[in-house]
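Q: Can someone sanity-check these two? First one:
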Amino acid sequence: MKSYIWILLALAAPTFSNEAFQFVDTFTDISDPSTYGVGIRKLYNILCETQDHGPVYGKLDEDGDAYYSFDEKVYECGAFTVVEGEPIENTGSVPDECLEHKKTQKTEVDFYPVIVKSRHGLIPGKANTPELGYFAWKGTQLARKNFKWFC
């Protein structure tokens, strides 16, 4: 019986490797490398121009709906520009390429565009430190440790 359990564990071990947790794009569109998404829905990184909160990074979906998160709430974004960039590994500091993307919100905190890996898929959002990336999801702001800079 013991050997049977060890065989099962040996067969299951590869599924517990780090490979299962690597950053994998859930949406790939070769013609447009700036798209990420949930399932097959395309999402774009955007910079929202808001009167209440200043410039805030957020997301735009393929239907034209744009959102950003601020102080744990989600807001619709009326005026925005699509952010151009490439995903850059998060190695514990803001990459030099991202410094020109720095935007200061009305809280006087600097933020940068990111792609956050969540259980919902790859979601465009923002980060002000290498520790957490923030994104809007179904009316609330969520944060995750696993993200890439987008600059």
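And here is the second, same format, sequence then tokens:
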Amino acid sequence: MIRHFLFAALCTILLSGCLEVETDEIVPGQDFEIVDAYFDNSYSSYITIVFKNNRDKDLPSIYIDYNIVCDNEFKKYGTSYFHVTSHEQTSQEFYVGSDAKTCTYTITAVRPFADDNYDDWTGNFSIQIP
């Protein structure tokens, strides 16, 4: 009787441990970083942001909510979508109006696409260009 009880308790503990799903956040500056950010042309109408996966494994496809504010009074709020494999880089280009000299690019949320193993990250992660 006691052996059956101990066996049942052990099975319950083992099964509950297997059923727990640990979630994670994808944090800018840690899991991925911005390795470069620059104006694309002499007219300063576009900026390019270069993202790099810092993990030893693929990141899930993610949405990044961001805002861009420039010295020429340009403001943009939007969402980018990308997927990067282990240590891979990707870049995205953004129109920032004409004659911008400096811009601030701020990530406000990272939302994994259709992956229950990850939670949304929210906060502020900013970089200055240049």
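A (reply): Looked at the second one. The beta strands are 24-25, 32-39, 46-53, 62-70, 75-82, 89-95, 103-112, 118-119, 121-129. The helical segments are 2-19.
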